[in-house]
Structures are given as C-alpha cells and as structure tokens.
Amino acid sequence: MLPGVSVYTPGQVVEETGFSLDTLRYYERIGLLEPIGRNAAGQRRFTQEDVGWLGTIRCLRDTGMPIAEMLRFAELVRKGDHTIRDRIALLEAHDRRVEAQVDNLREKQAAVQNKINYYRSVVD
Amino acid sequence: MLPGVSVYTPGQVVEETGFSLDTLRYYERIGLLEPIGRNAAGQRRFTQEDVGWLGTIRCLRDTGMPIAEMLRFAELVRKGDHTIRDRIALLEAHDRRVEAQVDNLREKQAAVQNKINYYRSVVD
DNA sequence: ATCCCACCTGGAGCACACTCCAGGTCAAGC
DNA sequence: GCTTGACCTGGAGTGTGCTCCAGGTGGGAT
C-alpha cells in the first residue's frame, strides 16, 4: 500500500472509533458525516479527517448530545470559519449541561451509596 | 384532613417526585411499584413509603439503571430481608457503572472544553 | 475456478421508556 | 343542576438511535 494520504477501510474505522458499521452508514445517511469517499468498487474509504470528526462525534454523543444538535454543529462546521463563535456558544451550552449532568449523577450516586451503607449496617 | 398516616394524591406525588402521572401509572403497571392503594372512588392514594420508594427509583433512573434491572431490585425488596446481600451486590455493581460513567463523561467533557479553547484561540 | 469475506443498498424492524388518547367517574364550587 | 378539574382504564402511538435483513458485488487466497 502506498503511504499517501492515510485512508481507512470501514473495518478499520469501526476498530478505531467503536461505532458499528451500521452506525457509520446511518451517520452518513443523515448527514452527520459528509459523503464518504469511495474506491472503484464503491466501498467507503475514510480519510484522517473523517476519523477525526468521528472522534468529535464520539465525545459529543458520549456526553449526551442528541443527534439533532450534532447535526446543527455539523452544519456550522460545514459553513466555514465565520461560524466559529456560534460553535463556541453551542459547545459551551453543551458543556454546562454536561456539568449539570455530572453533578446530578454524583448526587444520586451518593444516595445509592448511602443505601448500600445502610444495607451493610443491617447485614453486619 | 386528619393527620393520620400521611397520604398523597397523584398530583402531590407528581409534584414531589417529578415523575409524570402517566409514568407513575406505567411504573405501577409494570410492577416497579406495588399496587397503589385506592380511595372509595378508585383514585390512587400514595403512602409515605410509596413516595420513599419513588425517591429510590428516581436515584436509580437518574444514574442510568435500566427499568429491567430496577424490576429485579424491586423483586429483591419484595422478597424480604434475606435478599439484602443480593441488593448490596446489585447496587454495588450499579455504583461501579456509575463511577465509570462519570469518568467517561469527565474525559469527554475535557475534550469538548479543549475544542472550545481551540475555537477561542482561533477567534481571538 | 471457487470460496470466503468485507463491503454495498434500500428499507424494515427493534428496544426503550414513556406519552397520549378516548371515553368515563366523581366531588366540589357556583 | 351544571361545570370544572382531577382522576380512572385499556390500549395505541411516539421519539430516539440505532440494528438487522435480503440480495448483490468485487477482490484475494487456495
């Protein structure tokens, strides 16, 4: 293989990103990914940039951003550099939600731990 | 109102727990709540204990426990005190998942924040 | 040549957790 | 006595995010 621009097969992208092949196709279909390049046989060949974008998607998904909002973000990215302030605003709003989410998680987790400790005190 | 055992109307439980009336009925239907007591007209009257249990449900739900597992937990509670060790095991396993979830959230949030900072550096 | 495997498409199906609806009951206030 | 509003039931519908399927292509190893 010529080491030109580095290119990934679907299988390699599944490996790298943890998204299933079906999910990758789904993301392309709904426009979360730009149309992925193809080889002569019509098979997808992902660029480094595609894989990087999928890393971003992974962060946003894992922090609970709905797909609809990721689509809005993708749209901003597509529109070019003059949307950077909007992207900051979108990500900051998301970041605040993540913060709240972590706080709530921690609070409820503490309650679960109290319950565990109560049960331990009963059982000992 | 006689201040006997304290009793809650559906509306009051919605208020207290943040679950919708439909969700409360749904939880009763699937057996996550024991059958709720009724007044003469067939309307639900929740006890303090029901509301307390709903608080537990709220913690488990908010920390991402699937309903199927909450059902298993409810089952253990129903079966009585000899299941306390099993309950501890179930909650500890859940607690570990919550811990992992928070860690992942924090990690991905940091990446989002890096992105924000990068965008800020571009825009400034 | 043949087999296998990774990949392709369009479209249907699924799991989860609710949420809504039609049609009805009852009690309280005007 | 009528309206309003909170509540009831069984059952259907919804949104989200995938996931699976049938039927087919093309390339590399044996």
TrEMBL record, chains A, B:
It comes from Streptosporangium canum. InterPro entries: DNA-bd_dom_put_sf (IPR009061), MerR-type_HTH_dom (IPR000551), MerR_fam (IPR047057). Residues 7-76 form the HTH merR-type domain. The lineage of its organism: Bacteria, Bacillati, Actinomycetota, Actinomycetes, Streptosporangiales. Keywords: Coiled coil, DNA-binding. Pfam families: MerR_1. GO terms for molecular function: DNA binding; DNA-binding transcription factor activity. The keyword DNA-binding applies. The keyword Disulfide bond does not apply. Residues 88-115 form a coiled coil. This is DNA-binding transcriptional regulator, MerR family.
